[in-house]
C-alpha cells in the first residue's frame, strides 16, 4: 500500500464513479444481457503481469456496466430501493480504508462504541422504547441484512425456550407469521431446525389490507397449545414486501406477551419512514416487541449493507451466539466491561459499518432525512393519482408508503387473461430499458409494483414512467 499511489488511483476511481452517476440515466435500467454474456468477453485465467487501472476501468465501462442493473437509476422502481448517497459512499470508503475487523471490542474499540452510539441515536430518532437502548438491558447491532436479523433473533428465542423445556423439545416449537411475511423467515426456520410442519403461515386477504389478523393468530396458538405444541416466535411486518401491509403490532403484541412468545417486528423497508413523526404511528405497538429491524440500506441513504436490529434483552442473543475460544480471550471481554458484537451475529468478522450510518446521520441531519422520505411518498402519491385517472387500470392495495400496487384491467371478468396481460406489460416496459418495475401476486391477481425510493428520482421520472406504462399498455390492448 503506497499512499501516493492510493491517492492517484483513488482520484481516478472517484472520477469514474462520479461520471457513472452523471450518465446513469443513459443506461437501460434493467440489464439487457443474456446469461453467460461475460464469459465471452473476459479471459479464462488470471493475468500473469499486472494490468493498468485505466485498462480495467475501460473493461468496466465496456463489459461490466452492460451487465449491471442500475439500482441507483432515477428510473429504478422495482422491488424496494437500495439507496446510495454521498455520505453513505464516503462512509464505505473510509471503512474500506481503515479496513479493521471489529468482532470484539478490543479489536477496534471505536467500531463497537460508534455502533452502539449510532444505533442509540437512530432508536431515538424512531422513537423506539428506551428498552431497546444500549444503556439498559437491550441494544442495537448492525447486521448485513434483514434475513440475518430475523435469523439471530429466532435463534435467541429458540434457545430461550429450549433452556426452559429441554433441547429434545425442539420438534414442539411453533413459529407464526402471515402469508405476506418475507421468505427470510422461512429460511431462518430452515437454518434454526424448526420443523417445517410447525411454521404457521396465517392467511391474509384484502379485507384486512393483507395485515395479519390478531384473531387468526389467537386461534392458531390455541389450537397448537391444545395438541401440546409450544408457540415461541411471531414475526410481524410493517411494510410487507408485496404491498406494504402493516400488521397491528399492539394487538399482536398483547397476544405474544400473554403466551410468552418472542415478538419480532420486520420493518426492513418501511422502518426508515418512521423518523417522520406523522408516520411513526405505523410502528405503534413496537413497545410490545422483543426485537425490531429496519434496513438503513433500503430507504435511508446508507449504502448496502446496513440492517439495524434492536433487541430488548441482549443476553438472549449472547447466550445463543457466543463462543469464547482461547485465541480471542482478552481482559476487557473477560471482565464483562464491553460489548463484543461477535456474540450478536453469525460470522466472527465484521466491517466498520456504523461509519456510513454515522456519516449519513451527521451529513444530512434528521430534518433532511425526513424531507427525503416525504418527497418519495409524495411522488408515489402522484403516481397513484395518475393510475387512478386512467380507467383501464386499477389500484390493488392501499399506498401506505411509497409503493403503488396496480394492474391493467383485462377483458371483463377473465382473471387468467388479466394475469397474462399484466405479465406481458411488465416484460414490455422492462425491455424498453426506460424503467424497471417488479411484480407480486395479491389475491391471485398478478400485480405490478411501482416503488419510489431511488435518491435521484424526481417528478419528471415518475411522469415519464407512467407514460411508458400507458404506451406499452395501449400497444398490448390493441393486439388483444
Ligand atoms: C419486509 C422485508 N423483510 C425482509 C426483507 C429481506 O431483506 P434482506 O435482503 O435485507 O434480507 C425484505 C426485502 O425486501 C423486505 O421487504
Automatic annotation (TrEMBL):
<feature type="modified residue" description="N6-(pyridoxal phosphate)lysine">
    <location>
        <position position="298"/>
    </location>
</feature>
<dbReference type="InterPro" id="IPR015424">
    <property type="entry name" value="PyrdxlP-dep_Trfase"/>
</dbReference>
<dbReference type="InterPro" id="IPR010977">
    <property type="entry name" value="Aromatic_deC"/>
</dbReference>
<dbReference type="InterPro" id="IPR002129">
    <property type="entry name" value="PyrdxlP-dep_de-COase"/>
</dbReference>
<dbReference type="InterPro" id="IPR021115">
    <property type="entry name" value="Pyridoxal-P_BS"/>
</dbReference>
<dbReference type="GO" id="GO:0036469">
    <property type="term" value="F:L-tryptophan decarboxylase activity"/>
</dbReference>
<dbReference type="InterPro" id="IPR015421">
    <property type="entry name" value="PyrdxlP-dep_Trfase_major"/>
</dbReference>
<dbReference type="Pfam" id="PF00282">
    <property type="entry name" value="Pyridoxal_deC"/>
</dbReference>
<protein>
    <recommendedName>
        <fullName>Tyrosine decarboxylase</fullName>
    </recommendedName>
</protein>
<keyword id="KW-0456">Lyase</keyword>
<keyword id="KW-0210">Decarboxylase</keyword>
<dbReference type="InterPro" id="IPR015422">
    <property type="entry name" value="PyrdxlP-dep_Trfase_small"/>
</dbReference>
<keyword id="KW-0663">Pyridoxal phosphate</keyword>
<comment type="similarity">
    <text>Belongs to the group II decarboxylase family.</text>
</comment>
